[in-house]
Amino acid sequence: MTAVITKPRGENIVKLNSVSWETFNRLLNELGDKRNQRLTYHDHILEIMSPLGRHENNNRFIESLIVVIADELGLNLKKFGSLTLKSEQFQQAVEPYSCYYLENEPKVRNKQQIDLTIDPPPDLVLEIDITSGSLHKLPIYANLGILEIWRYDGEKLTVFILEKETNNYQECDRSLAFPFLNLNLIPDLIQQSLIDGETAVLRAFRKCIRDSQ
Question: Cα separation of 113 and 94, whole Å?
Answer without folding.
Answer: 16
